[in-house]
Fold this sequence. Notes:
The structure holds two protein chains of two kinds.
Chain A: H1 9-13, H2 19-34, H3 43-63, E1 69-70, E2 75-76, H4 79-105, H5 111-130, H6 134-152, H7 159-190, H8 195-204, H9 214-231, H10 240-247, H11 250-275, H12 280-303, H13 308-328, H14 332-360, H15 375-378, H16 380-394, H17 400-414, H18 418-443, H19 453-465, H20 485-503, H21 506-515
Antiparallel strand pairs in A: 1-2
Helix pairs in contact in A: 2-3, 2-5, 3-4, 3-5, 4-5, 4-11, 4-14, 4-20, 4-21, 5-6, 5-11, 6-7, 6-11, 7-9, 7-10, 8-11, 9-11, 10-11, 10-13, 11-13, 11-14, 12-13, 12-18, 13-14, 13-17, 13-18, 14-16, 14-17, 14-20, 14-21, 16-18, 16-20, 17-18, 17-20
Chain B: H1 5-20, H2 25-49, E1 57-65, E2 70-76, H3 80-96, H4 99-103, H5 108-127, H6 131-152, H7 157-185, H8 194-197, H9 203-220, H10 229-236, H11 239-264, H12 266-292, H13 297-316, H14 321-352, H15 368-381, H16 388-403, H17 405-412, H18 415-430, H19 445-451, H20 456-474, H21 478-490, H22 501-513
Antiparallel strand pairs in B: 1-2
Helix pairs in contact in B: 1-2, 1-5, 2-3, 2-5, 3-5, 3-11, 3-14, 3-20, 5-6, 5-11, 6-7, 6-11, 7-9, 7-10, 9-11, 9-12, 10-11, 10-13, 11-12, 11-13, 11-14, 12-13, 12-17, 12-18, 13-14, 13-16, 14-15, 14-16, 14-20, 14-21, 15-18, 15-20, 16-17, 16-20
Amino acid sequence: MNFIYTVSNADWGHLLALAPLVVTTALTMLIDIFLPAKARSALVAVALAGVAGSGAGVYMLYQSSGNVLAFNGMITTDHLALFGSVIILVTTFLSLLIAPGYIERQGVAQQGEYYTLVQLAALGMLLLTSAASLMTIFLGIELLSLPLYILCAFSPGQTKAYESGMKYFMLSAFASGFLLYGMALTYGATGTTQLAGIQNFLANHQFTLTSGFGPYFIMGMALLIIGLSFKVSAIPFHAWTPDVYEGAPTPITAMMASGTKTAAFVVFIRLFTETFGSVTAEWQGIIWALAIITTIGGNILAATQTNVKRMLAYSGVAHAGYMLIGVAVANSLGTAGVLTYLAVYALMNTGAFGVLSALEQQIDTNVGLDDLRGLASRSPLLAAAMAIFLFALAGIPGAAGFIGKYTVFYAAAVSGHIELTIIGVLASAAGFFYYLRVIWMMYFVPPAGSSAESESLHAEIISAGGSAAAAKVSIATAAAVALPVGATIALFIAAVGVIGFGIAPAEIIQLARNAAGLP
Amino acid sequence: MNFPILSALIFLPAAGGLAGTLFPRSAARMWALGVSAIELILAVYAGFQFTASGAVQFTEAQPWIPGLGLNYTLGADGVSVFLVILTALLTFTAISVSAEVSQNSDKPRLFYFLMLFLATGIQGVFLAQNAFLFYVFWEVMLVPAYLLVGTFGGPRRTYAAIKFVLYTAVGSLLMLAGVIGLNAAVSGGTGMSFAQLAGHVPANAQLILFLAFAAAFAVKSPLFPFHSWAPDAYTEAPAPVTVMLAGAMSKTGVYGFLRFGAAIFPQAAKQAAPYIAVLAVIGILYSAVQALTQSDMKRLLAYSSISHMNVIILGIFALNTFGLEGSVLQMLNHGVTTGALFIIAGYIESRYATRSLRRFGGMARQTPVLAVVFCIAALSSLGLPGLNSFSGEFLTLLGAFQANAVLGALATLVIIPAAWYMLQFFQGVMEGPESDIIAQPNGTAAARAKSADISFAALLPMLLLIALMLYIGLAPAFLPDRIGPTLTQFTALSGQFHASGLRIIQIMGRQSAL
Lengths: 519, 514
């Protein structure tokens, strides 16, 4: 087999979305050397400019027409890739806005490294969404993972942070191993690493479980599912999620939670719904089961948490379950549902983590349920923002999360998987409990030490909600929360987006449908 | 020319409430009162513009989510137009008696915003003309109701709010499954509009879809045995919130039963009707007996309200002329009467800082005017002829009797406990020897102020409702002209509907007036 590698000038144009970030990443490192330590927080502007530039690149690619494949079928800039890229860029943008106040509070001295790594991780995610070959997929996964290993352990002197980084590294390395093995087997079975080639091969060749290339291919698919399930934190490959999310700096958690998830789900769709679309029967059952376990398990696990960050981590698992429902139905409607879900999830989830990072600037430890008590009296706007994000995550209409749920569940029902709709809907009921518990802490419970009544009420809530750890009351939680400018802007954007897309979702749904190849 | 009056009715409260959060705290109440007054004027105006025919009027239609084939369609028919007026009226009265709640809280602006936001959700449910939009507004009600009970309620507010939200959430998530199932079951392009759904839901899917919807309606109404959140929420919530919950929000449940049961899933409703009727009868009697044994006046009213709501459900699932007409009338009457009673109870509670019936007695000597108002409201509740509830309840029970004599007879028994607990409540508080808290030692200014009768300002919202009780009781003819044709349309499918029962009311009304 001869392989001719040619690069045309037109190919470079397909890197429009990546190029600005590459430039600003290099610039960040360069400028960092010359800046005095005090001024390094200005580097965030460079990173933001890079993200904005990439956004402009995505827009230009969206406007251009013609061949979407480039570099010998390694990279694609189809609407699916661009839709995923936009989500990742928005998440990165918000995460960067939240970051300055947070990392200063955490005493991070190496701000240059921080912003460099964030941009590199974003680049990996972007590459992953544009990947049209197994090689580029692996490249993207590694490029996003390596910076994140470091970023997870970035808070100096915190054991939890080291645990987070180490755990993510160890388990993620395993998952990458599975993924690489799966790719090797798939390549062995089909003779090509290009997704289009694999799709073509599968359409023209019959196989069974025991004959021909069948065994290698099936095993390869199973290993690919394991590797990707790890990245989207589907049960039973989710165990790393709460510990890593808890220990990582909160802006990084926000970025991982929706950025990595978006990139991994785009690959999921590209590999399974599209490339393996002609052999749906071989893999649909596994994803179907994963979706059910993840939806139910994630919600149950989230309901038992008293640490808000861990609760959001498990709720992220539950949301991955809802999205897997969209993958499990294995058609374009499901894809459109997953993409819509990813878009709204990025806003509401990043918003919720943004509120947490603002709170963490006030207290030293991770935010427990108890630290939110009386937030509505102390910081009404912050509490209102958090309430909006939580109602959205719970799936109340009027906020964007509902639109995501509806499109996914609707896809399942129309595709004849009404059981997935029912399981998803019932599992959301558990979601109401744990999201609204946070709201009740913020709104129903007076701030610490505000009145004598609060103590008895508090006891009642502990008995009702089962939060024994909530017994500690810190003085800091009686004061208003100071909000840095960047975080304020980020929360405002996220809240307006959540409400806006909740009320007028037509555009985003249409874009998601186009990305999925629907009219 | 084409002013979107229904959109205005829906979004004016929420937009006004949101704007109100920008004002200083002291202005919050007057602003909210103004917004709700405009809402009421707008609703009454729509009521006068509404022509007496079965047609859906003031329709608005906009594409909303073309990708999913969903539209934003609104419209008012003879049932919803009155429920909209009722909601606007109760919002206005509830806000006008909210002074104390907002003064005692550090979040008055939040309170008024949530009250108005709740009104938006309720109006939306009544005016939506497709199942998706109906569901959206249905869930929108949940958020403010949860926050209102939990933030501004009594000592057990957290418990009440959580119980409320879990019951309601499970119900409405089942409805979400129903909406999605309905969307998948009917062929595309309908946008799930009510007009196109009626008669087009496949028979084999009707029952399961109806049950999914019914779960939500049963919780909200509340139908026995899904009612147990209601006594807690109604009792713990401050009086104005209870007025909104029991007076207006509960109607969305029975409206849903009527809308989806009678019109969209007629076969399923017919199949399920006997079972629901049995539950309703149990609910009627059980709640009435519960009301007899309560020592907390708001809890008593809560159970009384549940009992009457079950009468309405029984009327709907009689699925005949009398039952349906009576239940629609009762929806309005129940809102007015329950609203008035909860306002009175709230006033008494704030005056004496207790709701325990044992501690009251002989109040009428100090507050003769309040006693008269209370007496009329109580008589209205127990269904005295000449007041509003009589004709509605009479027709409802007549319909139930026609559908099933045994159930009808059993349900009619409720008259006994209903009169008993209501008179016991009234007499216990107003008549007899003066109790300790009423006969306070003279001297302090506060005590003297207490012994004064109700002020005119506090009386005004009650009088508004009392006037309506008398008006509907004596001259109810304007109702049948508009409700009748709509119901004929609703139930045209079952082919057994003749707008005749309402004629009886017209005649009865004329005779009472004479």
